[in-house]
Write a structure and sequence with these properties.
Order of helices and strands: EEEEHEEEH
Strand content: 35-45%
Largest sheet: 7 strands, mixed
Distance between the termini: 37 Å
CATH topology: Nucleoside Triphosphate Pyrophosphohydrolase
Number of helices: 2
CATH class: Alpha Beta
Oligomer: single chain
Structural class: alpha+beta
Amino acid sequence: MNIQKFNIRVYGLAIWQGKILLADEILQGKKVTKFPGGGLEFGEGMLECLHREFQEELNTEIENLKLFYVTDFFQQSSFNPTHQVICAYYTCQIKTPKSLKVATKKFDFKEEVERAESFRWQNLSTLKVEDFYFPTDKVLAAKLLAEI
């Protein structure tokens, strides 16, 4: 193992009316279900990152951010073996959830191209750890399900 860099990721757990917002994406040719969010940029705080990611990806504002979990185990990046991934997950609320443009099914893309993404509400009652691609999201989903 030749880890050379940290990759810090920040994700939002937006829950509304018994549903949680999920992101479906194509990353390096793989269909991936994950939580909305993304990479921390240099000179940016984690909360700033999450606000920026929701604005960029969903054109929406979030509020009431509260730290829920930070990965406390080593995780090698799924896409770059020289990177260690550290993930921070925040609960949050979308200011205007009814105005979000969301899909009604998984992987609802116009074209299946790299970086294609869609967002959808998933009932918490049907959420499963196996729904997620990344190991860190699987751990988070188990923690979330244990609390609801």
